[in-house]
């Protein structure tokens, strides 16, 4: 007897089937503190103590936002959750729940999906959030790529949302969280290395300062966003939405982000790259940037990195008074941040 | 002078760039009645009068859930919205907002994305809902396929959610909306035809009975779900979750779903198919199925199609007392509904 083709590997998504997949993934979803109805019905039901819900969606595509040979399934779950949870924090809200849409090839090992579910749950758990629903389907015929679309919900706790449009002349610009670590880790991985581990780990699993978002809102932040595409690009969105100029202070940024003997300095020296380029244009660490009225006592974890100049029709970002584009080019960057359809 | 490769076609996603795409898509998003913050910030903010939010995600993959040569961009937007809005209705809730995650090739014409946005908005508008946020990214390198992940939010209006688990012995089983039309339209398209148009149109743009969901909840429905995978499969989920047997009445189903001289009868006769197979196993019309205590006056649009038998450890679905699997096989169906990783 001959076989026309080899048997399927054990425990693929195809073998386990849709409801097997759901059961295995749900078993790892954790429990959301505010979920009244979790996975398994037509929809989830999540309580919204504030009377409003914050909602955001981020899509991660294999080969663009992650690689299965560079990141474990758990890493990818952590990263997909973090990208969305940081958006919720950037509104000044606390995340309450995730919904996950996943397209994967039918020969995906079920253990890989379980790993993603575990990573998602672990990233949410400290916030009291969990995956409350979603949909898992087969990738397009002929496509080997995983697409992960995560929606996060959050609660504002009675505070107004902190938008990108509220920065005012005279405000200070402040930062919470790390910048440049993920981009540095990516540079390491691209060259085929896997150390320093701190940088590579930061690329695999960002550590957004979730609590800093609601704390900034409570302290009176006038504008806020998360840094997903790069500091210059994302502060550019705040500048544009607010119709102001943000002037960042290179020395303060260095103090905040470039630890002597830290991984950015080490890798920069080894690769002949000024690590400031990662700090200014690297995304995916999901730091938070906010503006506060001058004199506001900043909450823990926030450091001043610049000021808001008087409103200007040519809204934009400066670094020590120089246009962001010029600074980025001088550092060898292709632009001020990530291009999504390059 | 020679060119190494031809210029890009005008107005692709790559040429317009991420923010051009967002601007063009947002211009078509419509306005959600309950949105406090719409697209353009880190997250949307939607008011939740009930104090809870209903949330559900459905993923549509090109080549599995739609084909760009069979459906227009507007059709695909309508269909993606409908799949999610029906899940919200199946909880007894009214949809308030959508978030859309979209992965598409960089050479996708921007006009196609605008069409999807228009379809999404048109499907939402009668409900007072709209797209309030999302993310558009490039497909995986080498992949030509569009993946559309839609999340719908909804409000329960003070009513308890209607779960799949509440069906009780003695309840009647009732149906709102159409069954089998989408499957019939798909059978037509698969054979290379495009008429009867009513069936093909139903496949391209389902017409879920959104208002019937909250109406059923208000009337005291004990369990409810939408029919996305096929009546036998989806009532099977209610039977299993409730630990009961649902016995469907073939004659009542025929009366409810098979109009003499209607497209299902016409196409069935032409193709030599018993149209009952589409009614019992065809998905994607997003009809609603609910159980009500016997004697409940049913709201407009609902018709009785069966009864709930006494609780049974072997929970399942019968048609005129015969097991669903047997009935489906006798009609020539491969199973009781759609297999997601076949």
Automatic annotation (TrEMBL), chains A, B:
Keywords tagged on the record: ATP-binding, Kinase, Magnesium, Metal-binding, Nucleotide-binding, Thiamine biosynthesis, Transferase
Amino-acid positions noted as binding Mg(2+) 3 in the UniProt annotation, renumbered to this chain: 42, 87, 226
A GO term, aspect molecular function: magnesium ion binding
Top-rank lineage group of the source organism: Bacteria
Gene Ontology terms: biological process: thiamine biosynthetic process; thiamine diphosphate biosynthetic process
Annotated metabolic or biological route of this protein: Cofactor biosynthesis; thiamine diphosphate biosynthesis; thiamine diphosphate from thiamine phosphate: step 1/1
Amino acids binding Mg(2+) 1: 57-58, 135
The reaction(s) this protein catalyses: thiamine phosphate + ATP = thiamine diphosphate + ADP
Principal EC category: transferase
Enzyme nomenclature, EC number: 2.7.4.16
Ligand binding (substrate): 65, 284
Sequence positions that bind Mg(2+) 5: 229
UniProt: Mg(2+) 4 binding residues: 42, 56, 87
Function (record text): Catalyzes the ATP-dependent phosphorylation of thiamine-monophosphate (TMP) to form thiamine-pyrophosphate (TPP), the active form of vitamin B1.
Other comment: Reaction mechanism of ThiL seems to utilize a direct, inline transfer of the gamma-phosphate of ATP to TMP rather than a phosphorylated enzyme intermediate.
Cross-referenced NCBIfam families: PRK05731.1-4 (NF004351), thiL (TIGR01379)
Family: Belongs to the thiamine-monophosphate kinase family.
Name of this protein: Thiamine-monophosphate kinase
Organism: Blastococcus aggregatus
């Amino acid at each position: 007897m001959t076989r026309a083709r080899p048997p399927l590997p054990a425990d693929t998504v195809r073998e386990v089937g849709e409801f097997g997949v759901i059961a295995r993934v749900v078993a790892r979803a954790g429990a959301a503190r505010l979920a009244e109805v979790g996975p398994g019905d037509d929809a989830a039901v999540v309580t919204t103590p504030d009377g409003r819900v914050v909602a955001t969606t981020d899509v991660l595509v294999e080969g663009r936002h992650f690689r299965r040979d560079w990141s474990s399934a758990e890493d990818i779950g952590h990263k997909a959750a973090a990208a969305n949870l940081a958006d919720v924090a950037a509104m000044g809200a606390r995340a309450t729940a995730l919904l996950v849409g996943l397209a994967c090839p039918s020969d995906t090992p079920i253990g890989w999906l379980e790993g993603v579910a575990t990573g998602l749950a672990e990233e949410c758990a400290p916030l009291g959030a969990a995956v409350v629903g979603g949909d898992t389907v087969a990738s397009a015929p002929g496509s080997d790529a995983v697409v992960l679309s995560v929606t996060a919900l959050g609660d504002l706790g009675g505070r107004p949302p902190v938008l990108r449009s509220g920065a005012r002349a005279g405000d200070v610009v402040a930062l919470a969280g790390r910048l440049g670590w993920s981009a540095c880790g990516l540079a390491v991985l691209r060259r085929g290395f896997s150390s320093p581990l701190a940088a590579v780990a930061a690329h695999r699993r960002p550590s957004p300062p979730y609590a800093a978002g609601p704390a900034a809102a409570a302290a009176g932040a006038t504008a806020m966003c998360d840094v997903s595409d790069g500091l210059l690009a994302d502060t550019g969105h705040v500048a544009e939405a607010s119709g102001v100029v943000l002037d960042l202070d290179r020395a303060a940024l260095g103090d905040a982000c470039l630890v002597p003997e830290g991984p950015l300095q080490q890798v920069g020296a080894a690769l002949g790259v000024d690590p400031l380029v990662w700090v200014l244009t690297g995304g995916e660490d999901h730091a938070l940037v906010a503006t506060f009225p001058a004199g506001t006592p900043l909450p823990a974890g926030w450091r001043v990195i610049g000021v808001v100049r008087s409103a200007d029709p040519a809204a934009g970002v400066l670094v020590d008074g120089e246009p962001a584009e010029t600074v980025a080019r001088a550092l060898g960057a292709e632009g001020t941040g990530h291009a999504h359809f390059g």
